[in-house]
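Notebook entry, structure prediction.
Reason for the run: the old model in the group folder had no record of what sequence produced it. Starting over properly, with the input documented here first.
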Amino acid sequence: MKLKVAIQMDHVSTIDIDGDSTFVLGLEAQRRGYDVWHYTPPDLSFRDRKVTARAQPMTLRREKGNHFTLGAAETVDLSAMDVVLLRQDPPFDMSYITTTHILEHIHPTTLVVNDPASVRNAPEKLFVTHFDNVMPPTLISADARAIREFWKEHKEIILKPLFGNGGSGVFRVRSDDENFNSLLEMFSQRSREPLIAQRYLPEVRQGDKRIILIDGKPAGVINRVPAEGEARSNMHVGGKALKETLTRRDRELCEIIGPALAERGLIFVGIDVIGDWLTEINVTSPSGLPPTCMLLRASPAAGTRLMAPANSPSTSMMRLSPWRTSGR
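New structure, fully documented this time:
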């Protein structure tokens, strides 16, 4: 079956083809002969119960500086698409949330990955709080006194914005840190949102695992090791991706959260695990496909399988298999 796939994403001209999962997905869809369309969130419109996008046909290639060609823009009825990939990067702000409300009008007749209502209701650092015995000691609050008490109890904590992404605004606060009050002032000036504080996990020096789950099942894993002198393991701030295997605890965590992911239509998810603890469930625009594919010696173009639905795109799940070089 030849599918029509629209990708709602940040403009293709801005992506890093060596590290961007959306690029990998688009390449694989193209390799299968699917029609691939590109549009950005501002191109999305709702009028008279019809969802449209000012979209362009897109061709991708693995050539730095020459990785895409876009055709002429036209107004496309997204209900005529088989699949829409919801792939713009956070911030998870009202602009992002509005696109989920609009895309709800076409899902599941047109399969939106991930389910837009579930994306809206499962922010990365909040969804994980619904599961028992998976998180390190955690506080979510805007109350400076509560945050201070948590810091004094655990001596060393990680402090970060609740709706941040990519490691931005993440601070390691030691027991004798003199900048604690200044940090709280800085955060309060930037936003009224609560902060998230977690007990510092020294195991992060051995790495922060990114585990890819497909339909609630573990599909691939890498270990991201922070650079010397850096508390964050994100690769764009110097973290190094290493080949990894799933431990018994990793599988246990996946078994705990997997059914809830599948039930909510969260088909493509990336979770972050430090030591024995789950810290985030990434559903908005999960990353990790390129290093997963490359570390398993599969080319990113061939290693990611955008599987055609078994029956019809309106009734079946699209399967993404980043850990294999052949579909299943």
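Summary: The chain is about 25% helix and 30% strand.
The old model has been moved to the deprecated folder.
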